[in-house]
Design goal:
Keywords: ATP-binding, Glycoprotein, Kinase, Membrane, Nucleotide-binding, Phosphoprotein, Receptor, Repeat, Serine/threonine-protein kinase, Signal, Transferase, Transmembrane, Transmembrane helix. The protein is of the alpha+beta class and 369 residues long. The protein has helices spanning 20-26, 68-80, 111-116, 125-145, 175-178, 183-192, 199-204, 209-225, 241-250, 267-280, 291-298, 319-330, and strands at 2-4, 9-11, 35-39, 42-48, 54-59, 89-95, 98-104, 160-162, 168-170, 206-207, 340-344, 347-351. The structure holds adenosine-5'-triphosphate (ATP).
Length: 369
């Protein structure tokens, strides 16, 4: 397929398109028994294709305003992006107003389930370290190595899936571009993932790949500590993971962050992960390293840059307040669906028309403390 965006001509490979009947048969008519879960984009079903491939079928729940060819063009972009640490997109289905995406099925569910779900899966230290590295490599590919640069926008533990060998695969990349970003949907997603949001994106909608670096830092700390980024059942000083991690770091007790359920742990690796995570979550995007440097620091190929300033944490955040604010804002947001890119010094700057500002004050970011 060839398409023209006003300045450049793109040649894209048309992705594999499945018939609705095939997916209906493969999921037993989208039987509730096969339902894997439901995310912001819609329900996801486990299915089996006629060639015996196990798949996850994602039904986009809000009809896209995009025309068929634009939808196919976007899918083609995502399908062209392939890496060991990204979930493989097998193809799509477009029939009438139905839009479905078909992914490889990953046996071991998501990282958040493994870390803070029912913990049927135990992740030892070396597995956790490899997961950190794998996620960092997947993001490096998306940001710096793939044909099209992609900012994921929603890096979090539930968007990292684990295959049968516990190799991490980043899911949902590129989806934000595809989706008909109704404001209600976006506000749900922003509210739902607040703990991973980079301050500049939360406050100003300023989106670069450094927002993903921030999200990675939060995930890395969750992997080391085995707890989620915010847990109100813990003692006051431990509720916010970033705040607690910084406190321990300042007191030279960084390794106390390590999950107590781990019987053994490689301390130098754990220290590296924590220090890199604190760098990744700096308030200023310029202080956050690019993902290729993160990989090099984690693997010990280069020294970890010393971190001297605290991360940008949202200490005073109240989830109920944020939901109220975001819902109220949703009705008044702009409806321009276009996304503008400009490129400078090799960095893709993306001003996100779907961004809903979050009512965050400087004190919430810990500034001036
Ligand atoms: N390729 C896949 N293989 C196996 N399970 C999957 C796959 N993709 C999604 N799932 C499961 O389906 C459920 C919903 O996933 P989905 O990615 O739609 O939402 P989410 O990541 O939980 O939330 P959000 O949309 O807010 O990011 C999750 O439990 C996830 O583990």
């Amino acid at each position: 397929m060839v398409f023209y965006d006003g300045c450049s001509i793109f040649v894209l490979f048309i992705p594999y398109t499945f018939s609705y009947a095939e997916l209906k048969a493969g999921t037993d008519d989208f039987s509730p028994i096969n339902k894997l879960g439901e995310g912001g984009f819609g329900p996801v079903y486990k299915g089996m294709l006629s060639d015996a491939r196990a798949v996850a079928v994602k039904q986009l729940s809000v009809a896209s305003h995009q025309g068929k060819s634009q939808f196919v063009a976007e899918i083609a972009t995502i399908s062209a992006v392939q890496h060991r640490n990204l979930v493989k997109l097998y193809g799509c289905c477009i029939e009438g107003d139905k839009r479905l995406l078909v992914y490889e099925y990953l046996e071991n569910n998501s990282l958040d389930q493994a870390l803070f779900g029912n913990k049927t899966l135990f992740l030892d230290w070396s597995t956790r370290f490899e997961i950190c590295l794998g996620v960092a490599r997947g993001l490096t590919y998306l940001h710096e190595e793939s044909r099209v640069r992609i900012v994921h926008r929603d890096v979090k533990a539930s968007n990292i899936l684990l295959d049968s060998d516990l190799v991490p695969k980043i899911s949902d990349f590129g989806l934000a571009k595809l989706y008909d970003d109704k404001k209600t949907h976006i506000s749900t997603r922003v509210a739902g993932t607040i703990g991973y949001l980079a301050p500049e994106y939360a406050m100003r909608g300023h989106l670069t790949e450094k927002a993903d670096v921030f999200g990675f830092g939060v995930v890395a700390l969750e992997i080391v500590s085995g707890r989620s980024n915010s847990d109100s059942s813990l003692e006051d000083d431990k509720v916010y993971l970033l705040e607690w991690a910084w406190q321990l770091h300042e007191d030279n007790r960084g390794l106390e962050l390590v999950d107590p359920s781990l019987s053994t742990c490689n301390e130098s690796e754990a220290k590296r992960v924590i220090d890199v995570a604190l760098l990744c979550t700096q308030t200023s995007p310029n202080l956050r390293p690019p993902m290729s440097r993160v990989v090099a620091m984690l693997s010990g190929d280069i020294e970890v840059t010393p971190v001297t300033t605290k991360p940008g944490y949202l200490t005073d955040w109240k989830f109920s307040d944020s939901t109220t604010f975001l819902s109220a804002d949703a009705s008044t947001s702009n409806t321009d669906q276009s996304t503008q890119f400009s490129s400078s010094a090799g960095t893709t700057q993306l001003s996100d028309p779907n961004y809903t500002p979050v009512n965050v004050s400087a004190s919430m970011l810990g500034e001036g403390r």
